[in-house]
């Protein structure tokens, strides 16, 4: 089987790159990583050269190109059915897809007000309308899934749904948004994962600074 290539952007800031990278790395799937920084306000032409949308992440497998984080995770789940990207149980797979799609399509107030930033020192900011609603809904998703599965991850073992929420873990921490014990425990579980630690180490070593994401 050809080794896929995952194109990503800055590890410090790129929440959408973080998701498929965390999923693939966390489950031991072998791939080549190509990082193209978004260090140009008009868009890095090197990204446009490989991606039909002009954005990353993008997974290339042979001649096939797959963009969007969730589509990449879904494709990898088909390519590596035994890796554990999705739950084995059909009902649980459907639920994992539902919460992953909700993460993809929702929570705009949170993501807009609180950009992912691995290097940012923990500090609160004034929150616009809608952020508290997003936080409450995400906490409810986590709480319900962890109660059903018994943890430590959303569906028991680490999987694609956890990876979809990985940037939220960073947002909740660096902007000091949550204080529920069960939320904090899940966040610590995620941050202790070897894939998270590998991404974080690389993010902290990056030289690029994107002013608009330095809230």
Automatic annotation (TrEMBL):
PANTHER family: MALEYLACETOACETATE ISOMERASE (PTHR42673)
Protein name in the entry: Glutathione S-transferase family protein
Superkingdom per UniProt: Bacteria
Species annotation: Rhizobium redzepovicii
Pfam family for this entry, one: GST_C_2
GO biological process, one term: L-phenylalanine catabolic process
Native organism taxonomy: Bacteria, Pseudomonadati, Pseudomonadota, Alphaproteobacteria, Hyphomicrobiales
GO molecular function: glutathione transferase activity; maleylacetoacetate isomerase activity
Classification via InterPro entries: Glutathione-S-Trfase_C_sf (IPR036282), Glutathione_S-Trfase (IPR040079), Glutathione_S-Trfase_N (IPR004045), Thioredoxin-like_sf (IPR036249)
Domain GST N-terminal: 4-84
């Amino acid at each position: 089987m050809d080794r896929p290539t995952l194109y990503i952007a800055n590890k410090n800031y790129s929440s959408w790159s973080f998701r498929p990278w965390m999923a693939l790395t966390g489950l031991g799937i072998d791939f080549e990583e190509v990082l193209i920084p978004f260090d140009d306000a008009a868009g890095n032409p090197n990204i446009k050269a490989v991606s039909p949308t002009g954005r990353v992440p993008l997974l290339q497998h042979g001649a096939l190109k797959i963009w969007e984080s969730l589509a990449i995770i879904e494709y990898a789940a088909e390519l590596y059915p035994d890796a554990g990207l999705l739950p084995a149980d059909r009902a649980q797979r459907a639920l994992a897809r539902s919460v992953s799609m909700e993460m993809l399509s929702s929570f705009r107030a949170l993501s807009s007000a609180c950009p992912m930033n691995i290097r940012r020192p923990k500090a609160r900011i004034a929150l616009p309308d809608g952020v508290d609603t997003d936080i409450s809904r995400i906490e409810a998703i986590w709480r319900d899934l962890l109660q059903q599965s018994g943890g430590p991850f959303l569906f028991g073992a680490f999987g694609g749904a956890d990876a979809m929420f990985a940037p939220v873990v960073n947002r909740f921490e660096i902007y000091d948004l949550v204080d529920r014990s069960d939320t904090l425990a899940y966040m610590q579980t995620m941050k202790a994962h070897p894939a998270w630690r590998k991404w974080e180490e690389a993010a902290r070593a990056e030289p690029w600074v994107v002013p608009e994401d330095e809230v």
